[in-house]
Design goal:
Blueprint (H helix, E strand, L loop, with lengths): L1 E6 L5 E7 L2 E8 L5 H16 L8 E7 L3 H18 L3 E5 H8 L6 E9 L2 E8 L2 E10 H9 L5 E4 L1 H14 L3 E3 L9 H10 L18 H12 L2
Parallel strand pairs: 1-4, 4-5, 6-9, 9-10
Antiparallel strand pairs: 1-2, 2-3, 6-7, 7-8
Helix pairs in contact: 3-6, 4-5
């Protein structure tokens, strides 16, 4: 099975190709360029380096969220376009699940998080490879309070960890463990691994972003409407 995997849900832009059980290509970029500038050249490089083509892909995988509204839209739109043109099925991958898988096994809890700004993060909780808490937008202080009551070591990963590392350490002390730099961000090869194991695929029409809260423009519109009622 050949899979092209794309992630633009956070600060990094990632592309991977999985082929017959092997990661043939994986590239993650964190630079000053926007994902819209980085993404397609990275996809082209993936095909060039592997000698594979879009027509040889069996599945197209995309991280659908949670994460940056703009980034998620870009990734989903790109995969929709590639799938529409090639007729390939799609797999929607959850960002937090991919982060948790990427750090491997840990004797305790794994808490992947995306920075949601305004003192909040998008977070979930996993133990022994199993999800034990749903994705949710939550204030960092409230998340730390919940985790402290569980009396277990917690491994943090994701860009939310890198942004809030000092505050997490202050709130949780020795109960907090932080992923190594190589595993701190979502890795596109884990997106491909999840897609390879997925039992169901989607067509491009039903591939949609996963938003845990409305985009800021939508929230502002609702606020203005409420003020004029």
């Amino acid at each position: 099975m050949n899979i092209l995997a794309i992630d633009t849900s956070g600060p990094t832009c990632g592309v991977a190709i999985f082929s017959d059980g092997i990661i043939r290509f994986s590239q993650t970029v964190l630079n000053k360029r926007t994902h819209s500038v980085n993404l397609m050249p990275m996809v082209d490089a993936a095909f060039a380096f592997t000698g594979l083509s879009l027509n040889e892909m069996d599945r197209l995988a995309c991280v659908v969220g949670p994460g940056s509204f703009t980034g998620v839209r870009l990734g989903v739109s790109t995969v929709k376009g590639l799938a529409h043109g090639s007729g390939k099925p799609c797999v929607a991958v959850n960002a937090l699940e991919a982060m948790a898988l990427g750090v491997g096994r840990f004797d305790g809890l794994i808490c992947p998080m995306q920075d949601a700004r305004a003192g909040q993060v998008y977070a979930a909780l996993f133990r022994d490879g199993m999800r034990i808490a749903p994705d949710e937008p939550i204030a960092l202080t409230e998340l730390a309070k919940r985790l402290l009551t569980m009396n277990q070591k917690v491994l943090f990963t994701g860009d939310g960890m890198t942004v809030h590392r000092e505050e997490i350490g202050d709130l949780m002390g020795e109960q907090a463990v932080f992923a190594d730099p190589a595993f701190a961000y979502l890795r596109p090869e884990t997106v491909a691994e999840i897609a390879a194991k997925a039992e169901e695929t989607l067509d491009y029409l039903t591939l949609m972003p996963l938003y845990l809260r409305a985009p800021s423009a939508e929230r502002n519109r609702r606020l203005m409407e409420a003020q004029h009622e």
